[in-house]
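In response to reviewer comment 3 from the previous cycle, which asked for concrete evidence that the modeling workflow produces usable outputs, we include below a single protein chain processed end to end. The sequence was submitted unchanged, and the resulting structure tokens are shown without manual editing.
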Amino acid sequence: MAGGLVGLLDDIAALAKLAAASIDDVGAAAGRAGVKTAGVVIDDTAVTPAYVHGLAAERELPIIRRIAIGSIRNKLLFILPAALLLSAVAPKVVEVILMFGGCFLCYEGAHKIIHALRHDDHDHDAPAAQLGPDTEATTIAGAIRTDFILSAEIMVIALKEVITEPLLSRGLILVLVAVGITVAVYGVVALIVKMDDVGLSLAQRPSRRSQRLGRLLVAGMPKILSWLSVIGTAAMLWVGGHILLAGLDELGWAAPYHLVHSLEHTAHGVPAVGGILGWSANTLASAVLGLAVGTIIVAVVAALPLHRLRRAKGATDAGSAG
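The workflow returned the following structure tokens.
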């Protein structure tokens, strides 16, 4: 009897160790998958504060909370089931979808660079929040629609990293990625949005040190947002280009991927700094490819009749408003 109890306890301990190891594996895989989504995450973090620009300060956090709830709903209720179903019945389709996502990232990154080089300050996609307090519901709905595209990219990129895992583990990993990234993105967004208020509060205190810190925060937040946008653009080109390289390799055209891998291997041979140079070579080559593909897509989109009609309508509306 005692021997049987000891054996049972040993079995329970072994199962507990196995479960703990599985949880560790899921957590580690979720971390690796989350890192691959860096470009989209940074861009999401840089873009979202614009949706509360111009609204009353007391409405900023409630709006961000509602957008975050919409984001997690997008990921868990719509994107996750579709991604798991596709990965189970048609894994090659996931690769194709991922490459379309990579092309979209390249397009977005190239479009932002071209927009900046042209010094085109007229933004036809300005958030509705700037039009007044009555547009709050429209603003939230628009932000959630935009988030759906970014969330789909995040989830598919993460899925690609764990597509060989068992279905249950795959689902758990994607849930962790979805929740973790949503909390991280909208937590940082809330911090960024309220930093102006913190700075103003500090600037009104009697302490000169607090005042200096407050003025520094108020003056520094626009620069931080600007740098976030730059980093997000670069990361989109790098991630988009790398997705295309890896996707082409998986679909049978291995030459571009092998060329970049060869450059990376050569750079790794440099003493002391080989690791950094190898990563830099891969990143730079991916970003160059991303910029080239994105620029081509921008040119194609600009030549489409629908795009020209939309641009003409925007000019007409602007003239009528004037």
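The chain has a mean pLDDT of 75. We consider this sufficient to address the reviewer's concern, and the full set will be provided in the supplementary archive.
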